[in-house]
Amino acid sequence: MTEPRARAARHKGQLNFEKELRGLLYAHGDDPDPLPETVRVLDEITTDFVIETCHAASRHATLNNRQKVKLEDFKFVVSKDERLLGRMTELIGMEKELKEARKGFNTDEGKIGLERGAVGKKRKRVSKGGEKGEDGEDVEDAEDADDDMVHDVLVAAAG
Questions:
Q1: Distance between CA 22 and CA 42 in Å, rounded?
Q2: pLDDT-based confidence at 132, cuts 50/70/90?
Q3: Collapsing DSSP states into helix, strand and coil, what is residue 80?
C-alpha cells in the first residue's frame, strides 16, 4: 500500500465517487447533506482501494506473463477476503443474468439510422482467426465483457 503522505497529495481536490458516497452515507443513517470532509475522506479511501486493487491485479497478470488484466486476476487479488470475493461473484453472476435477459428483449424496432455505415454504429469485434471460447462467444468479446464487469464490480465492491 502507498505511503499515507503520498496518498494525500495524489488526488487533491478531485472527488471520484462523491455522488455515490453521499447516497451511501444517507442510506446508512447520515444526514442528507453530509460534511464535505467526511465525503472527501471516504472518497480517498475508496479511490485508494480501487487503485491498489488494480495495481495488485496488474502485478498478478504480469507474473502470469500477460499484458492484459483479466477477471481472474481480480478474483485472485480479493480471494483473501471471503466476503468481498462472495460479493464479487454475486455481482458477476447478476451481470451475466442481466445480459442474458437483455438479449431476449433485444429488438431492432426504433433503431432508425443504424443501418450500414451510419454514424454511431457499434460493430462486433471478431478475434483473429475467429477464435471461440468454451461458451461459443468470440474470445475478444468475452474479454471486453470481462473488462466491463471488472469496472462494475470494483465500483460496487468499493461502495
A1: 10
A2: low
A3: coil
Residue in this structure with the C-alpha cell 442528507, named with its chain if needed: 32
Please compute Rg for the chain using Cα positions: 20
Neighbours of 46 (CB within 10 A): 21
- Residue 60 and residue 77 in contact, taking contact as beta carbons nearer than 8 Å: yes
Task: State the amino acid at position 71 in one-letter form.
Answer: L
pLDDT (tens digit per residue) in 25-44 = 999 999 999 999 999 999 99
Provide the grid cell at 15.
472527488
pTM over 0.85: no
Q: Where are the alpha helices (DSSP H) in the chain?
A: 4-10, 18-27, 36-63, 71-78, 82-105, 139-158
Task: For cell 496518498, name the residue.
Answer: 7
